[in-house]
Automatic annotation (TrEMBL):
<protein>
    <submittedName>
        <fullName>Uncharacterized protein</fullName>
    </submittedName>
</protein>
Length: 101
């Protein structure tokens, strides 16, 4: 029955790192758009579009970035728990007093 249950520990770690980076990128992008605002990008249309986007999406993207932080933390904890569980299961199959190879 091998192959029916497998946790990709490296993939979980990679996903958590990617999500963490995404949250920072969302906040950074919104800050850049806010900074452009009416300060003189050289285009009144671009400045208006940035302001409208910031007004419409700023709060929501902040909430998404905050939630992403919680998901990242949960994935990190899940990865650690699965790693510990896999180690315990491997030790259980080796039997008492047997060292890992």
């Amino acid at each position: 029955m091998t192959g029916y249950y497998r946790v990709e520990l490296d993939a979980l770690s990679h996903l958590a790192a990617q999500l963490d980076g995404c949250a920072g990128e969302m906040r950074s992008a919104m800050k850049l758009l806010k900074d452009i605002g009416p300060k003189g990008s050289g285009s009144a249309e671009l400045e208006k579009a940035c302001d409208e986007f910031q007004d419409a999406w700023g709060y929501g993207i902040g909430l998404i970035a905050d939630a992403t932080g919680g998901v990242t933390e949960g994935l990190t904890q899940t990865q650690k728990l699965y790693a510990a569980l896999e180690q315990q299961v491997a030790e259980g199959f080796r039997g008492p007093g047997k060292a890992a190879n």
